[in-house]
Amino acid sequence: MINIIDIYLKLNNILNIFKDDIKNISNEEISNRINTLIDNYIVEMNNYKSQIEETTMILQAQFEEISRTYEELTTILDISKLIFSVKDPRLTIDKIVNRLKDIVDFENVVIGEFNNSTLDLSFKPLFLELTTTGFETIPNLINYFYKEKNFKTILSETDPLNKSEKSILLIPIKSDVKIWGFVLLYGKKDNSFFLASDKKIMESVTEQLSFGFDTMDYLNDRIKQEKISNQLKFAKQIQESLLPHEIPKLKKIESSAFYRSAFDVGGDYYDLIKLDEDRLFGILADVSGKGVPAALIMSSVKAVLKSRIEKSESIEELAIYLNHYLSQNIPDDTFVTAIFILLNSKEKSVKIINAGHNNTPIFIDGEYKISKASGLPLGIIEENPLIVENYNYKDSFLFVTYTDGITEARNGAGDEFEYERLEKLIKQKTQENMDVIVKSIIEAVDDFVKEAPQHDDTTLLAIKSY
């Protein structure tokens, strides 16, 4: 049998309530003490049970919070994958909203993209799901909350504009680059309020969306730049094909030319066409504008010249035809300055037409003269009064023409090379051959500008007959 004293000792050893020796204690006192020990043991057990239950509840809540956080993170990760699975994030909006429904409770949702700018807050809907409100409510809310252009997250327990109890969560889709649009959640299905946790989730989603829009914008720019680059390469090929591959050689006519574009493609054009052993036709033209349009106009000029030069009875007829063609076929804000020359070494005659081009130095038997613009640039009006300059020489004729890239070349101080420097240099070199004259001018210009960037093409054409 279990001894009452053994029971007492075991219970007291667990609870450690009584400290005295039991030798002098009666059996009745021991029984009373056992009851006391049992009562305390029950209290302790109940307390322990309560603690276990409380801990279990805390652990359960923590587990639920961890599960919810995991679900939120998984959803945001899935949304991120959706956004970056395509070049255009607009294509994934439907799937994004469906994933959001797993973690955020809402009745109505609108995802809008602002048009061109945020000045008037107009937008195009990328996604609409309206069950308890009409679309007419949405623009008014956007204008109400963002009228000061302070694009921040709006968390409101009610709709202050429409005096409704619907909770509102409005989050801008914005980055350092641009304000792209917004996500609006209007009302919750359980009629409660949107919480800070909802705000945090939606801000993470809109951050991913804004990054997707930025990436799309960057890629579109790169594609556009690549297209422009390809167009410029094509235009450069056109331009290079237009310029003479070699300078024609005649018995008593010497010529030389130089061309350098300030950009990938410029608007300058020159040509030298040998008509026979005694006659040389030359042209130097400057098309207003740059790039592909200028290259195409240059192509037209060359095509017209090639097709008409043999048919035209005079340089005047050729220039008039070209002006007529250009005035009908190029944009109103485009024109072509040009200088034409037809040199006949047998007859020792020269014909020049200066259509709005630069002053051009000429030397007739060593005597200095200037060919000045006598008409408007080509392509402005159909009835352009182009005047032919006629010259005759006995011993020699020198002609040096150029585009603005020569006289308007600027140095680091902003000073221009100017016509006077060009004139002085040519006068010093009149006895030299054409290659030397051209080389001397280009070297002088380059030495003048040094490392200063240039913004216009450099073209030079020199012809001499003797």
TrEMBL record:
<dbReference type="InterPro" id="IPR052016">
    <property type="entry name" value="Bact_Sigma-Reg"/>
</dbReference>
<dbReference type="Pfam" id="PF07228">
    <property type="entry name" value="SpoIIE"/>
</dbReference>
<feature type="domain" description="PPM-type phosphatase">
    <location>
        <begin position="250"/>
        <end position="465"/>
    </location>
</feature>
<dbReference type="InterPro" id="IPR001932">
    <property type="entry name" value="PPM-type_phosphatase-like_dom"/>
</dbReference>
<dbReference type="InterPro" id="IPR036457">
    <property type="entry name" value="PPM-type-like_dom_sf"/>
</dbReference>
<keyword id="KW-0378">Hydrolase</keyword>
<dbReference type="GO" id="GO:0016791">
    <property type="term" value="F:phosphatase activity"/>
</dbReference>
<dbReference type="InterPro" id="IPR029016">
    <property type="entry name" value="GAF-like_dom_sf"/>
</dbReference>
<protein>
    <recommendedName>
        <fullName>PPM-type phosphatase domain-containing protein</fullName>
    </recommendedName>
</protein>
